[in-house]
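Person: At home tonight, work slowly through the protein below, taking as long as you need, and write a paragraph about the fold.
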Amino acid sequence: MVFWIAAGLICLVVVALVLLAARRPDTGEGPKAAYDLQIYRDQLKEVERDVARGTLTEEDAARARTEVSRRILDADRALQGEQAQSSAGKGTALVVLGLVATIGISVWTYWQIGAPGYPDLPLDGRISMIEEARENRPDQATAEEQAPDRPQREADPERLAMVEQLRTVIEQRPDDARGLELLAANEAMLGNFRAARNAQGRLLNLLQDEATGRHWIDYAEMLIFAAGGYVSPEAEDALVRGLALEPSDGTGRYFAGQMYAQQGRPDLALPIWVNLLRESRPEAPWVNAIQAQLGEVAFAAGVELDPAMLQGGPGPSDFAAMEGLDAEGQQAMIETMVEGLANRLATEGGTPQDWAQLITAYGVLGRSNAAQIVHDDAQATFAEFPEALEMIDEAFRAAMARAGGASEPRAGGASEPRAGGASE
């Protein structure tokens, strides 16, 4: 019904515009009456010239003026009639043509891309359709068959040798829970997600009731990666089991939100991701992935978010671009991203999480001096916010431990360049 109301209003607007154009006065003159009118006016001027030259008496001039004036009035009436008739004809033709064209194009367009005769679908009906589609979605095996092949990651020979050894051990000792756990983790690190989920599945069968929430969530993650990012019914079951045991697990909550987003339920995905983002440290592996998708999910759910929640580090496109680079190229790209975050904090500022993220990133890069400088700036920026200072100090200690620098922050007030120009 809403569509037809909108279509009717559009038609009315178009008709009104065409009518206005049709009623606009025609500035041109009719061909015959306008020509006669000009001749009669010229005759009046000629009479006056004859009187001035003395070739025409005043009495004859008066009679001539009367006759010419009568003809001028007749010609003027004829001209007005021609103009009115022309305008009416043009206006009517344009209105009819506009109506026919508008209605015809509207009906044709709706017939091509719309659903003629299909009633409005209430929210409950839409949710029922989504739930029905969710129940009938492809299973894990189908998803894995359709998933594109992942390029094999370059692994160091020692890891490859260890994985080969683990495979041999598991063949000889299939009930070795620790061996299965190590095999699943290392297969996943190599990008062999199908082999990883097989090993993890065997581990779960072996552990039975002793399996932890972490075991189930790891299994769900391996299933999702093996299916190319798709959350299958089997992966959903593993997530439900895992989150029942570990309800605060960040990885499980992230994939639960992804599952709802895939199934057309942004209203359920959004609160999961928003709450997880608020509770997560900036270096958490799911933070950037959530921030890259959160705006789209919020828009689909009809919710307006704080733009600060959408700011983050590199997104999926950045990581996709890194896959084709060698180690040096990846390092250079990571440093470029980190410097981009540093420049944004220097020029626009940011949340305590942003500053902690930058400190962590410098720790990963081994740039302890740069981390110290950013820490000093953050301390000055958030001097009146104890919780923010605690977060920043914790990120700094972790960064220093990773980079091999001093484990405790030094006193503030350093004179080195600040965020945006932090250097070694």
Summary: Residues 79 and 95 are 24 Å apart (CA to CA). The chain is about 75% helix and 0% strand. The chain has three domains: 2-113, 156-313, 326-403. Residues 313-317, 411-424 have pLDDT under 50 and may be disordered.
